Amino acid sequence: MASGESARHWAHPELPGVDLLRARYIRKSFTPHTHDAFALAAITRGVEEFRHRTDIERVGPGGVALINPDVPHTGYAGVPEGWTYRVLYPSPELVAAIAAESGAVRGTPAFREVVVESDPYSHRLLTEVHRAAEEGNALAADSLLRIAVARLLRRYGTPLAARPAPGAGARIALRARAVLQERMADPPSLEKLAAELGTGPFALLRAFRATFGMPPHTWLTDARVRRARELLEAGTAPAVVAAQVGFTDQPHLNRHFTRIVGVPPGAYQRERARTYKTAPGTPA
């Protein structure tokens, strides 16, 4: 990690369904990626800039970024000194449960706003969830988390719009994704993949980008890192993980993992091992 940068990506054993990231980045640049969870980020210093779908967003101190699951985005410094933030990654299932119990959103919840700049209370709630978790105060962390998510949903939430039936291009993209997911460690070339699906390479590129917001090779890297996280959490050695998900070697895994998750795979695995060791009912 670059000089002056620091990051901790972790989970609290009594906050199931939530990941936490506390970081200061200066030269860090997140490559296009998605999360299978929501990302609720409170910027405490500096400015983060990021591409969200096709728009460039910018959020400074006191601002909050709200990113829905499976939405492609990047992340990089918007000023020379970089940015510092605290991020919560609650699972869709947890957010849906909070939405249903609180009555904040009917149906499948999502956020209609990407950047919120004038809501100091929501910003404070997100940072206080982190502080409570870091202090080992699970009751406060869980309570504040639910208060924060319910408030954000009431103010900026919306029911997720029903997706229209996929057209011909989307159907091809979905089939391509299934092939890449199944053959992650040894994927076909674009030309071979297109031939298997009965289409042309450029037509496949256009359809895949239109459906998933990124080209197939970028999606595959993102999917490999998601799978790598699962294997690391299960205790698989990083070198073995690299081979199983299709990266050339461990340095290749390290580079892509850090560009998407924000910390190296070794640090990520150590934090998860600490979480599982201190989980309720587990001997310390």
Automatic annotation (TrEMBL):
Pfam families: AraC_binding, HTH_18. SUPFAM superfamilies: Homeodomain-like, Regulatory protein AraC. This is AraC family transcriptional regulator. Residues 174-271 form the HTH araC/xylS-type domain. Keywords: DNA-binding, Transcription, Transcription regulation. InterPro entries: AraC-bd, AraC_XylS_family_regulators, Homeodomain-like_sf, HTH-like, HTH_AraC.
